[in-house]
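Try it yourself: sequence plus adenosine-5'-triphosphate, in.
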Amino acid sequence: MKLARNILLVDDEPSWLRSLAITLNRLVPEAHIDTCVDSRQVENRLAIGDYALVLLDLTMPFHSGETILEMIRTHFPKTRVIIVTGVNEVDTAVRCIKNGAYDYFIKTDNVDVLSRTVRRALEVVGLERNYLRIKESFLSRTLSQPEAFNNILTCEPVLLDQFRYLEAVALSPEPILIYGESGTGKDEFAKSCHQLTSNDAPFINVNLAGINTRAFELHLFGQLTTHDDGQVSAQAGALHQVQSGLLYLNEVGDLPLEAQAKLVDVIEHKQYYPVGSDRPYPVNCKIVASTQHDLLVLNKNGKFRSDLLYRLRSHKIKLPPLRERKLDLSMLINHFIQLAAHDMGLEAPQQPSNLANQLADYQFPGNLHELKGMVFDGVSRSDGVQLNITPFMEAINEQKPEGSHQTDTLNFPKKLPTLAQLSQALIDEAMSRTANNQTAAAQMLGISQSALSRRITKDK
Ligand SMILES: Nc1ncnc2c1ncn2[C@@H]1O[C@H](COP(=O)(O)OP(=O)(O)OP(=O)(O)O)[C@@H](O)[C@H]1O
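Structure, out:
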């Protein structure tokens, strides 16, 4: 995770610079400290290094601290300045604050004051930069890392917006919540977030469905066990294994209330205690959670803690169900045909041109899981040329409301039709249901396309 942490110390006294650098390295170990003893070099150093913070002496040969402060405010507005001053220069330091310095520090102050001020300044710069990045990235219409979304096919504007939103918030230190029905692509979005944030660190997926609090603790925090002989054995939890990668908490809505309280602690304090240990360990990973349930409703029903809800909702992505993504259908069917054919070692069959139209009113309760299953079934049943549409037609028929099923029982009129009439009625129905696609209609009727074509031509 990118945090602002580069600091430049500027002072003409090399011995003071050395001791300040050592102190800060010890007290603020997450910072990267550089030093500069020549006030004429400061502008060049800032131009080549991405400094969040400058600790600036006031009295130096060549350029005074006040002059350098003005240069930094003008040319490097994203860099904050803390004035480091002697007791006799406090008036000047206060004037510097009025001119935009973040704070001042008196050389004789105790080092705890210094480390607190530096930490706070780094946090402020980190938040400012984060906010700016989110704003700039969201306002631009383009993605800077489109390859992170290679696994998510879509041309739906609402999802393309979610790509830009995810790219904008991926580097934020806050967690991200992905909300959508089963099979809407939550896992894929979490993987994209991993690519955007920490591709070379681990991605760990923890399924929280049905987990109890004890199992949650062991799974996430790990355990330290002290044996009778005094030996200690450790079992690493997901938070240890993930390091600075991405922890994906799948189905967070299923977590018991007690375990939710433990998760709030992790997010809030960025640390955790392995079971059996009273030593805290830092949390350095990105946390992405997903849910199929509306957490607001769970919260109203007393099943989801408010503090966890509001922490998770700081960045949230809502994925639409497939029934609201009809623009994507044809492309997704082709994609799954390629996958299925590859997995089965077959030639990829063609998608019937009107298949997506026929599915226009189908609700897809299982979303992409269901579509993928249908396509894999259709490929396995295909004649090698065209995708078999039986699985799709079966699903459409199953979904028809009560009373519209005509397949189970046939209601004949009082006077029975002749065989020829019945056969003609069947052909007409199949052609109408498949929008006149002879191959699809033939599949439906259980005859070859050439046999159907002969019957149609004969009847003309
Ligand atoms: N836009 C997409 N393009 C291509 N494949 C996709 C897309 N979205 C999802 N998939 C595929 O569809 C299947 C279901 O997606 P995924 O597992 O991400 O959904 P989910 O919402 O996490 O489901 P669940 O809630 O069951 O975990 C997966 O095989 C995934 O690779």
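One thing you can check immediately is this: The mean pLDDT is 88.
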